[in-house]
From TrEMBL:
It is found in: Cell outer membrane. One of its GO terms (cellular component) is cell outer membrane. GO terms for molecular function: efflux transmembrane transporter activity; porin activity. This is Outer membrane protein TolC. PANTHER family: OUTER MEMBRANE PROTEIN TOLC (PTHR30026:SF20). It comes from Olivibacter domesticus. Keywords: Cell outer membrane, Membrane, Signal, Transmembrane, Transmembrane beta strand, Transport.
Length: 435
């Protein structure tokens, strides 16, 4: 009776036993991934670059001020003939020149290209934000899927452990009955074979469970051999609505947002190309100090300082029809961006519709497999008691044992598939959360 009691405790309590390792919650796993994941860190750095680039200075709206200095010297053999006819000669005459000052150059009009470029830089910043959101969603999806895969495998491990304990009990019963002559040696051997089979299945499942842990640690960007445990149950949200998910996807899906931004960037590029038809007007100003010396000539030293200023303008009159070609290519880029937008939009509608149908079917499968597991457990309980009393054959006991394990595995698989369908829908809609 003590053995029977132990078997019952294993069946009902084993799925809720935790390992002697710290439990890693889903929220903690996602927090670690968002902080340490390599892909997110790379995309975050790219976003910072885009933010730094989105400035009026980078668009060419501000003046450019430089400080310049130059110094030169020369040794020359010089001969000068004056108007009076007098000739002066000097060998190794030393001439020096020194100039320094500040220069300002400012493009005040370039056919509105600088404004289009500034808008384009801001759109590139938005594109970086969309790419970061996409990377975050992909990472969160990866973490969540592997986390719930571990829960599924843990549930299957518990079912296989129960099957192994039942096989041990069956072998003990067979050996005891063989000792008193109630069964043949054949039944003992068959029990050993089934026990070895269940041991092998458990070992393989343990290897798979350990490898999945390594993969999750890799996504979390930490030591792949870090020990941890996961929770025991999978909670499924069963009230997702297609229309609400569709509206969210059209507003928040990062792929769709990126396609919209790319079309806007192409439109701004065309605006910059057309701006090259207009004249470019520059203002320039400088303050300069100069000093020159000469050993031969009318002035042996010349010192000066002061401001200079001016305005310049240029316009493209003819450049070998390149302007027309560039505008045509920029227009084609807009067409391509619009086609890509339509393609992404159609793809999202297709993915969402298929994923929602899968989600509904999986919800039904979860309910069905839950009932099957309950029935298989009741059947296992009754079969175990009958086997103890010797009123059923070992083959019937083994069949009930297999049915219980298979039902438990199917139920955990159904839960996992339903959860994957749920988080897949949320990823498409751009609203993947920790729930």
């Amino acid at each position: 009776m003590k053995k029977i009691l132990c078997i019952f405790l294993i069946i009902y309590i084993a799925p809720y036993l935790a390992y002697a390792q710290d439990t890693l919650g889903l929220e903690d796993a996602i927090a670690i991934a968002l902080k340490q994941n390599y892909d997110i860190r790379l995309v975050s750095n790219n976003l910072v670059v885009a933010e730094n680039n989105a400035s009026v200075a980078n668009a060419g709206m501000l003046p450019r001020v430089t400080g310049d200095a130059s110094s030169s010297a020369a040794l020359q053999n010089t001969t000068q003939t004056l108007l009076s006819g007098e000739t002066r000669s000097l060998k190794g005459a030393r001439n020096t020149s020194l100039a320094y000052g500040a220069n300002l150059d400012w493009t005040i009009f370039d056919g509105f290209q600088m404004f289009a470029k500034y808008d384009q830089l801001k759109e590139l910043k938005k594109l970086g934000e969309a790419n970061l959101q996409q990377s975050v969603l992909a990472t969160v999806f990866n973490v969540v899927s592997q986390y719930f895969d571990l829960i599924q495998q843990k549930q299957q491990l518990n079912a296989l452990r129960t099957a192994l304990d039942l096989s041990r009990y069956r072998l003990e019963m067979a050996e005891n009955r063989y000792q008193i002559g109630r069964v043949s040696k054949l039944e003992v051997l068959a029990s050993k074979v089934d026990l070895n089979t269940d041991t092998t299945n458990l070992m393989r499942q343990n290897v798979l469970f350990g490898n999945t842990k390594i993969k999750l640690n890799e996504v979390l960007a930490r030591d792949v051999n870090t020990p941890f445990d996961v929770t025991d149950s999978i909670s499924i949200e069963d009230n997702l609505k297609y229309d609400l998910l569709l509206n969210l996807a059209l507003q928040h899906n990062p792929d769709l947002q990126a396609a919209l931004i790319n079309r806007r960037i192409a439109q701004l590029n065309l605006k910059q190309v057309k701006g090259q038809r207009y004249p470019t007007i520059n203002l320039n100003s400088a303050y300069t100090r100069t000093r020159t010396t000469a050993e031969l000539g009318f002035a042996t030293k010349n010192i000066g300082n002061g401001f200079s200023y001016g305005v310049s303008a240029s316009v493209n009159i003819f450049n070998g029809f390149l302007q027309k070609r560039n505008e045509k290519n920029a227009t084609l880029e807009i067409d391509n961006a619009s086609i890509s937008l339509e393609k992404v939009n159609q793809g999202i509608l297709s993915q969402l519709s298929a994923a929602y149908q899968t989600y509904l079917v999986n919800l039904e499968l979860v309910e069905l497999e839950n009932k099957n597991q309950s029935v298989a457990k009741q059947n296992m309980d009754i079969t175990l008691e009958k086997y103890r009393l010797g009123s059923i054959t070992p083959l019937e006991f083994r069949e009930a044992q297999r049915n219980y394990v298979d039902a438990s595995v199917r139920f955990s698989n159904a839960q996992y598939e339903a959860k994957m369908a749920e988080i897949g829908l949320k990823q498409i809609s751009g609203a993947l959360t920790l729930d």
